[in-house]
Amino acid sequence: MAVNLQIPSESEIFPVAGVEIGVTEAGIRKAGRRDLTVFRLAEGSSVAGVFTRNRFRAAPVQVCEKHLASGGPVRALVINTGNANAGTGADGLKRAQDTCSALGRLLDVPAEQILPFSTGVILEPLPLDRLTAGLPGAIAKLAPDQWFDAAHGIMTTDTLPKIHSRRIDVAGKMVSITGISKGAGMIRPNMATMLSFLATDAAIEQPLLRKLAVQIADQSFNRITVDGDTSTNDSFILIATGKSGVAISSESDAAYAAVVQALTEAAADLAQKIVRDAEGATKFMTIRVEEAGSTEEALKVAYAVAHSPLVKTAFFASDPNLGRILAAIGYAGIDDLDVSRIRLWLGDVLVAVDGGRNPSYQETDGQRVMKEAEIVVRIALGRGQVADTVYTCDFSHEYVSINADYRS
Amino acid sequence: MAVNLQIPSESEIFPVAGVEIGVTEAGIRKAGRRDLTVFRLAEGSSVAGVFTRNRFRAAPVQVCEKHLASGGPVRALVINTGNANAGTGADGLKRAQDTCSALGRLLDVPAEQILPFSTGVILEPLPLDRLTAGLPGAIAKLAPDQWFDAAHGIMTTDTLPKIHSRRIDVAGKMVSITGISKGAGMIRPNMATMLSFLATDAAIEQPLLRKLAVQIADQSFNRITVDGDTSTNDSFILIATGKSGVAISSESDAAYAAVVQALTEAAADLAQKIVRDAEGATKFMTIRVEEAGSTEEALKVAYAVAHSPLVKTAFFASDPNLGRILAAIGYAGIDDLDVSRIRLWLGDVLVAVDGGRNPSYQETDGQRVMKEAEIVVRIALGRGQVADTVYTCDFSHEYVSINADYRS
């Protein structure tokens, strides 16, 4: 059951000129599921990607990195669910390349101009025959208004599609921004978290787009965690087709600030939607650390709290067991932390000061906050001026059930 | 339900000359539970301790460190369950000191010669009145044969008492070694894990005992993990009363090797018993990493696997979902890891080679191993000569239930 995950209506999804999408059922792992998605991009599109840092990164991730590094254009993406093509060695690499070749032949573009993506079970061979047999069906459906189908087509244990769309007016011209994401478990920062594809019809030159992809990922997908598990496959792809007539070639361009802000907000929403639909989640938790000496310090504390199974199970139980939060702060790895300076809020309730319980804290106040579906934990360290925020969810019976049953 | 946790019979527990123990029901948190334990140590005993590295370390831990640092003798320990006296600020510190003063008056020793220990709920004031009211009852029971009662008296969410006892013959003289431990959740290495008290009637001089306490903890309690949560309170105390007539004053003494080996094995068993009785555990997992370039590397990989909720839920399901183990190895933080050199065994089954699945691996072989209650995961990194081992357990519905309900 997702936590307050907003799904826009069809009429709120704006196609991005220059992007066509086709989705089909290829039977990759099970029949009757939309599991194969193709993106075709107009000539002249810029594409940049940020990929998992897992050393066991999947074959398609390796192929993506190679194709992007070649500096040539990208004209299509191909995404399958049901199989991650990870932990599959040289044979897996060949299957990812063969996927690109097969789609290239059908679209009449070189294989090097295609990026492949896979998500699903690790350590099993990608069923290449079924995948390539499905490609013509996906291509037959290529159309600009298929973003919703794509959001469905990339889902695995997700319960709801994740989609974000907006239009902004830039000096009288309309710029569209639409993106999708997937991911529900094996979610941890450092771009190892999920698949997300975000497109705009603004023109953004390739070197700037590469820089922007990293910067935007850092403010969105690198600020969420579900279970601390960094996946082998996950990828964020930023596409700029240029079809709107709005062009950005440097950070000093008039349109830069507006477009980047809109892209960042879209990515942050797509990232938070992953947490809202996390496996078994019943609570959406915002962990905000203030008065840190550095971003690294703030994130150490925020992730220690966000990853603690004891904190996460207490939130599942709506139990204001705040000692577990203090314990997590204490083991976050800041060696000279002075706990007597720390203040801790649960929602608007100040629960801890001076290294202990706030004398005026009432358990009933804590319980009132814990019953909400969205909870802000705010921690002031008393060490500096830096603040940062991480988003996570609680840890429920359902998480165990889903992950104990996933392959069965 | 603990996994193969051996409980010795009463006749297998050897008293340690110089150690008397008394246990009582003080009603610290709930009535009708043995929750207060006193150890009285003979004059001339040496005592050393290793304590949590959590910055929110509890008041009794701070008092222990202060009393041990003073260099004076230690004549008694006092241990309560039901309340951790952690996150309690200056008031908590005073209550820990007052506990020592109260026991000191009753035993006629200075408060500085007493070490206090607390375990239980964090962030709530220690009920000092009930604790001190219980002390005379514990003292009335002081006797050398109360180790079993003590093992019960320090339990919290533990389902079984954890006790280890042995005698060794050292050049014709008998040396007794007996210890207890507690802990079931909030278990993570770096001595932040549990309470354990291990005593011998060998004589070991204070500076050597201090060194040994660190060395033994590192080979036992610092090699286990349940949930990665480092607690605020936990402590390992090593006691040498000298009453056996066997004396060790340096590492070159004849008795040194035999006594240290026996103490280390006792501590390792007490540590592994904690994992066997971990909250909700149904499987005991040994994660052995070989061919690492350093101990740090071996432990990074072992703990990444041992902490992964996805790995732990797969083991709960007896599902040989080995890709999750590879993914954890991949995100363990070894930046130049060459995954093509890695080999992975589940029990005696070689499941992965060359960065992918072993071509001759059969899923039925993996399933056979996964159905066992004790499973060895062996990972060869192909980087060097160092090996190390970490012990952990699976992650079940029961873990969520226990931790969602703990305070309720």
Written description of the protein model:
Chain A is 32% helix and 25% strand. Chain A is α+β, with helices and mostly antiparallel strands. Chain A folds into two domains: 268 residues, 4-Layer Sandwich (L-amino peptidase D-ALA esterase/amidase), CATH 3.60.70; 122 residues, ArgJ beta chain, C-terminal domain (Ubiquitin-like (UB roll)), CATH 3.10.20.340. Chain A has a six-stranded mixed β-sheet with strand order 15-14-13-16-12-17. Chain A has a five-stranded mixed β-sheet with strand order 3-10-8-7-6, with helices on both faces. In chain A, a hairpin with a 2-residue loop joins strand 13 and strand 14. In chain A, helix 2 packs parallel to helix 3 and helix 7 packs across helix 9. Chain A is globular, with a radius of gyration of 22 Å. At the A-B interface, helix 2, helix 8, helix 9, strand 15 and helix 11 of A face helix 2, helix 8, helix 9, strand 15 and helix 11 of B.
- Biggest sheet record of chain A: 6 strands, mixed
End-to-end distance of chain A: 21 Å
**Poorly predicted runs of chain A:** 188-193
Most extensive contact: A-B, 69 and 69 residues
What is the percentage of strand-forming residues of chain A?
15-25%
**Shape verdict of chain A:** globular
Catalytic activity (chains A, B): L-glutamate + acetyl-CoA = N-acetyl-L-glutamate + CoA + H(+); N(2)-acetyl-L-ornithine + L-glutamate = N-acetyl-L-glutamate + L-ornithine
Main location (chains A, B): cytoplasm
Site (Involved in the stabilization of negative charge on the oxyanion by the formation of the oxyanion hole) (chains A, B): 119-120
Subcellular location (chains A, B): Cytoplasm
